[in-house]
Design goal:
Length: 253
């Protein structure tokens, strides 16, 4: 499958509007190699001082985030705390390799759920700087029309950050907060993802964006360990037939 994806990308090198890359919240952050989503839940648990042992394991992270959001409504404060937690982080190998591919013209449009600047740091090593060499836009911060124009008309790389941005002091954490930032550009997301799309590192936190992705259009390549299932009966049958399947399937009606 990876060879098939590579062939598609090679055929579209230096071509605008032909394919799009999505980077989700399951991307692992060095040096501990913890998924971003788990790191955010860890931060929330530390700040609220409660691990919610009374809840099912899969609900504890979301509960911590909900309480943290109520406890810390100030986005600037959230960003400061996350920046401190990421103080020892560095671009992962995936960031580095992606930056090289971007430099060589393989990816003209990237949507990412990462609020950190690890991808930007990797691009910096390739002598690519925001605004000079590419557009760096933040859903929920930048005006929707600015994002739309960049996606439709720019001849440079466009990166749209959909899960916040530490430099912009904006960090949505719950599904409702993330969706509030995405809703104004929902139509632009749908149009952007109508071409060939590659989804990587998808996680539960990314569900709000997936709701704006059209169910028709170009090919979709799903490069992930997590597979969303919309049919509750099918999900229940999966659990009964193969209990271990819940490790890589999630019910998302």
């Amino acid at each position: 499958m990876l060879e098939v994806i590579a062939d598609y990308i090679k055929a579209r090198r230096h071509k605008l509007g032909k394919h799009i890359l999505f980077i989700g919240s399951s991307v692992k952050i060095p040096p501990e190699d913890i998924p971003l989503s788990a790191l955010l839940e860890q931060l929330a648990s530390e700040q609220v001082g409660h691990s919610f042992p009374e809840l099912a394991v899969e609900r504890r992270g979301a509960a911590a985030l909900e309480q943290f959001v109520q406890q810390t409504p100030d986005h600037a404060q959230r960003c400061r705390l996350l920046r401190e937690k990421l103080s020892a982080s560095r671009p992962a190998e995936g960031h580095t390799q992606l930056a090289r591919l971007v430099k060589e013209g393989y990816f003209p449009t990237i949507f990412t759920m990462e609020p950190d600047d690890l991808l930007e740091k990797a691009l910096h090593t390739q002598h690519l700087e925001p605004e000079t060499d590419y557009h760096l836009l933040v859903a929920g911060v930048d005006e929707p029309e600015v994002i739309s124009v960049a996606l439709k008309e720019s001849t440079r790389l466009v990166i749209v950050k959909c899960g916040g941005d530490l430099d912009s002091k904006y960090l949505p954490l719950t599904a409702a907060e993330i969706d509030a930032g995405l809703q104004p550009i929902g139509a632009f997301i749908a149009e952007a993802f109508s071409v060939l799309a590659i989804f990587t590192a998808y996680g539960e936190r990314d569900r709000p964006l997936l709701s704006y992705v059209p169910r028709d259009g170009g090919k979709v390549f799903w490069v992930n360990t997590l597979v969303p299932v919309s049919d509750e009966q099918m999900y229940t049958e999966l659990k009964l037939e193969s209990p271990t399947s819940i490790e890589y399937h999630r019910l998302q009606p």
